[in-house]
Amino acid sequence: MNGRKQPSKTLRLGVLLSGGGRTLENIIKHIGSGQLPAEVAVVIASRDCRGVEIGRRAGVETHVVPRRQLPNVNEYSRRIIEHLDAAKVDLVVQAGFLSLWLIPPHYAGRVMNIHPALLPSFGGHGMYGHHVHEAVLKAGCKVSGCTVHFVTNEYDAGPIIVQRCVQVAEGDDPDALAARVFEQECVAYPEAIGLFAAGRLTVAGGVVRVSEH
Asked: H or E element: which one contains 41?
């Protein structure tokens, strides 16, 4: 990614997930409506979950690779990378993927994640799902939101691509805040993937630059 643009083409996506698959559904919807020049080439799940059903129902090659069945993170990562390579994936999209895997050099700058807060706040190990929203409310934040970022081998520390904000309302509980944040996630992730597909993203000095064309 550093200093180079991606070719404009139909992007082959590899989606990694661990849960309900709502983000996968959103991506498939954007592709189906012609809003996103991409195709989901493979879905990889860390466990049997609703996201697996969604992938298979959409006719996508779908694999379950449970972490607990493999001896270490290196072997787990190798299995994931094998599936991604076999599917000739251009971009890896983490969609609520809760297992650690090690990104090899040939996928550097080609893995995205979405986080349900405004990084660099409320990120890091153990900060996912409702844990994030609970922490935002406990801190008394007046705004929250979501962040799409490139993934590195350090939790939630990769360069930020897109952020969208929501107001934190008086009387919010984690469920109410999560619902409003997820509405913005459904906009932000397709936007980031589309920018990548159009070759408009470069990274310099750990910062993402978005070109006009």
From this structure: strand 38-45
Residues 80 and 129 in one domain: no
Predicted TM-score (pTM) above 0.85: yes
Asked if the model's pLDDT at residue 3 lies above 60, the reply is no
Instruction: Say which residues have a Cβ less than 8 Å from residue 117's Cβ, sequence separation at least 6.
Output: 123, 127, 132, 133, 135, 136, 144, 145, 146, 147, 181
> Which residues are known to be catalytic?
115
Whether residues 117 and 90 fall in one domain = no
Say yes or no: 31 and 48 in one domain: yes
User: How much of the chain, in percent, has pLDDT values that exceed 90?
Assistant: 92
Question: Distance between CA atoms of 131 and 205, rounded to whole angstroms?
Answer: 30
Angle at 10 between CA 96 and CA 208, to 5 degrees: 60
- In the chain, the number of structural domains is 2
| CATH at 153 | 3.40.50.170
| Residue where the block lists tokens 């787990």 | 76
> Domain of 93?
8-108
Identify the residue whose tokens are 């081998």: 153
Q: Which of 191, 115, 211, 129 is nearest to 159 (CA)?
A: 115
Structure tokens at 76: 């787990």
Helix (H) or strand (E) holding 1: none
Domain boundary among 108, 123, 157: 108
Does residue 100 sit within a domain?
A: yes
Q: For residue range 8-56, what is the model confidence (pLDDT) as tens digits?
A: 568 999 999 999 999 999 999 999 999 999 999 999 999 999 999 999 9
